[in-house]
Specification:
The complex is a heterodimer of chains A (115) and B (115).
Chain A (H helix, E strand, L loop, with lengths): L2 E3 L4 E5 L4 E3 L2 E3 L5 E7 L5 E7 L5 E3 L5 E5 L4 E6 L8 E8 L9 E2 L3 E6 L1
Parallel strand pairs in A: 2-12
Antiparallel strand pairs in A: 1-4, 3-9, 5-6, 5-10, 7-8, 8-9, 10-11, 10-12
Chain B lengths: L4 E3 L2 E4 L5 E6 L6 E7 L5 E8 L2 E5 L7 E4 L6 E5 L8 E8 L9 E2 L3 E5 L1
Parallel strand pairs in B: 2-11
Antiparallel strand pairs in B: 1-3, 3-8, 4-5, 4-9, 5-6, 7-8, 9-10, 9-11
Classes of the chains: A mainly beta (115), B mainly beta (115).
C-alpha cells in the first residue's frame, strides 16, 4: 500500500528565506508524485508533479521539487519566500499501475511567512 | 480558466439526516472524485467515478454514501443518514483522463457540520 509522510505540520520562514517542505513516500513501485497548495477558503491547486523523465520538476510560483528514488523523497523548495506563499501544502502520490486516479495525500504542512 | 464548483460552501445538518453535496466538474472532464478532510487530518480519497460507474471506493465509502451524475453537468455525493463523524470538508475533483499522471482539479470544498 502507498503512503505519504510530510515532516513538519508547520514550517515558519522569513520573507526572502529558502522554503523547504519535506515529503517522503512509501510505495512498491515508484509512484507519480504531486504537490498541491491550498490557500484559505480555496480548493487544492496543483503546484507541480513528477511522472517520468527529469527528476527535477519546476512548478508555478517559483517552486520546484526533486524526485529522489534512493531516498523515496519529493521535497518542495523555493529559493526565496514571499508573503503570498503562506498556505497549506499537500504532497500526494498516485499509483502508475492503477486506473482509477486515486490520490493518497500526506498530512499537509502549513507554511507561515514572517515579514 | 475553467474551474470545479461546489455547493453549498457550508452545510449544517442534524445527525441522521440526509445530505446531498453538489459539484459541477470542468465541462470536458470525464473522471470525477470525492475526497474529504476531517479537521486536522489528511485529505482522504472516498470514490472515483467514470462512465456512470464507481471505479474505486475506499473503505470509508460504505452503504451510507452514494454518488450520482444526474445530468450532464452535476456530480453529487449523498450521505443517507449522517453521523457526527461525517463532519468534514468534502472536496470534489475532476480530471480529463484517468491516468495516474493526469492532473485532478479540485473545487473549493463543502464544509459539512453534523450536530
Amino acid at each position: 500500500a502507498q503512503s505519504v509522510t510530510q515532516l513538519g505540520s508547520h514550517v515558519s520562514v522569513s520573507e526572502g528565506a529558502l522554503v523547504l517542505l519535506r515529503c517522503n513516500y512509501s510505495s512498491s513501485v515508484p509512484p507519480y508524485l504531486f504537490w498541491y497548495v491550498q490557500y484559505p477558503n480555496q480548493g487544492l491547486q496543483l503546484l507541480l508533479k513528477y511522472t517520468t523523465g527529469a527528476t527535477l520538476v519546476k512548478g508555478i510560483n517559483g517552486f520546484e521539487a526533486e524526485f529522489k528514488k534512493s531516498e523515496t523523497s519529493f521535497h518542495l523548495t523555493k529559493p526565496s519566500a514571499h508573503m503570498s506563499d503562506a498556505a497549506e501544502y499537500f504532497c500526494a502520490v498516485s499509483d502508475p499501475l492503477g486506473n482509477t486516479g486515486k490520490l493518497i495525500f500526506g498530512q499537509g504542512t502549513t507554511l507561515q511567512v514572517k515579514p | 480558466e475553467p474551474e470545479v464548483t461546489q455547493t453549498p460552501s457550508h452545510q449544517v445538518t442534524q445527525m441522521g439526516q440526509e445530505v446531498i453535496l453538489r459539484c459541477v466538474p470542468i465541462s470536458n472532464h470525464l473522471y470525477f472524485y470525492w475526497y474529504r478532510q476531517i479537521l486536522g487530518q489528511k485529505v482522504e480519497f472516498l470514490v472515483s467515478f467514470y462512465n456512470n460507474e464507481i471505479s474505486e471506493k475506499s473503505e470509508i465509502f460504505d452503504d451510507q454514501f452514494s454518488v450520482e451524475r444526474p445530468d450532464g453537468s452535476n456530480f453529487t455525493l449523498k450521505i443517507r443518514s449522517t453521523k457526527l463523524e461525517d463532519s468534514a470538508m468534502y472536496f470534489c475533483a475532476s480530471s480529463e483522463l484517468v491516468l495516474g499522471a493526469d492532473t485532478q482539479y479540485f473545487g473549493p470544498g463543502t464544509r459539512l457540520t453534523v450536530l
